[in-house]
Design a protein that fits this description.
single chain, alpha/beta, GMP Synthetase, Chain A, domain 3, 35% helix, binds guanosine-5'-triphosphate, binds magnesium ion
């Protein structure tokens, strides 16, 4: 990546940018967090959890790697879906290496439309080194499905490596880092020591509230949820934060609020516990539920929610 930057105080290492792409739900964000050693990206068993690119910076004695977690590659037609997919595809051009995460334990065919093969081809067209990750190796089903998948990838010209790993247990991540390092060149670290993400605590906290809603609220509602932290007061050992929860319709607002406010109370309590666990301090969480009609398919709505 060609960039002009101030090199004062930056140490000399092998460095570079690695984009993590793949279908929804394959474990990209879980992998990012495992590499970072803390929760930066939210994760969930439901697809389309990540909506924007998120950087986590990995450092060791030899390398500094900026990993970019991206939204899952999918075919949704709304403006939000298209924004998500463009985030993911755009990450390829700035990357030194492209890692494509797949989940051989699911029945998803990665060689069909909107599969990993399409992503690999896009990256190879731009002459990027491509590494395929076969994630969830801790699952028996994954190990059973793995051999034929490795066979299929071996017929695709240009694929650098196929690496089984488990983002959940961390097994195999060292091998992935070694394989990536082969493709990086000596240079200056891009980020100062101690910086492990481009995202603020406020932003992560807003995402944690969205993750809580994904877990607590069923059906299609999570796809209509947006969260935004509107105030953040650092009080030393605790944080007082206020956030807006956006929905698309009045009926969804009623569900999020719940009978006599029971659901929004539950969301607040559960978020507070998660935030305390993540940041190691107490949180006081105040939530407002707002309707932004049809925001997932409107430019105005996306801008208002911060997806620009
Ligand atoms: N057993 C197992 N589960 C995993 C592993 N990695 C991720 N998962 C689970 O897979 C689900 C999806 O994980 P995410 O990290 O949110 O997946 P993602 O690829 O970021 O999904 P999107 O953001 O929707 O594209 C979650 O329930 C994770 O706990 C793994 O190595 N083993
Ligand atoms: Mg994700």
């Amino acid at each position: 990546m060609d960039m002009e930057f101030d090199t004062t105080g930056l140490k000399k290492v092998k460095s570079g940018f690695v984009a993590i792409l793949g279908r929804p739900n394959t474990g990209k964000s879980t992998l990012l967090n495992a590499i970072a050693g803390r929760k930066i990206a939210i994760t969930s068993p439901k697809p389309q959890t990540t909506r924007e690119n998120i950087t986590a910076i990995y450092n060791d004695e030899e390398v500094q790697i900026a990993f970019i977690d991206t939204p899952g590659y999918h075919s949704g037609a709304k403006k939000l879906n298209r924004y998500m997919v463009s985030q993911s595809i755009n990450s390829i051009s700035d990357a030194d290496v492209v890692v494509i995460v797949t989940d051989p334990s699911s029945k998803e065919d990665e060689f069909r439309k909107f599969g990993a093969l399409e992503l690999a081809e896009k990256a190879l067209e731009l002459s990027k080194p491509v590494i395929i990750v076969l994630n969830k190796s801790d699952k028996k089903k994954q190990r059973e499905g793995m051999l034929p998948v490795i066979g299929k990838w071996s017929t695709v010209p240009g694929i650098g490596a196929v690496i089984p790993l488990s983002a959940m247990t961390g097994d195999g991540i060292d091998i992935l880092i070694k394989e990536i390092s082969v493709h990086l060149s000596e240079g200056f670290a891009y980020y100062p020591e101690g910086m492990d993400t481009d995202r603020s605590d406020e932003w992560i906290a807003g995402e944690v509230i969205r993750e809580t809603i994904i877990m607590l609220v069923s059906q299609e509602i999570p796809y209509s949820i947006g969260t935004k932290v509107i105030s953040w007061e650092d009080k030393g050992d605790s944080v007082r934060m206020e956030a807006d929860i956006f929905v698309e319709r009045d009926s969804q607002k009623a569900i999020i609020i719940g009978a006599k406010g029971s659901m929004v109370k539950k969301i607040g309590e559960s978020s507070r516990k998660s935030l305390a666990g993540i940041f190691g301090r107490d949180f006081h969480v105040f939530l407002n539920v707002r309707v932004e009609p049809g925001w997932t398919d409107s430019s105005r709505g996306l801008i208002k929610l911060g997806y620009e």
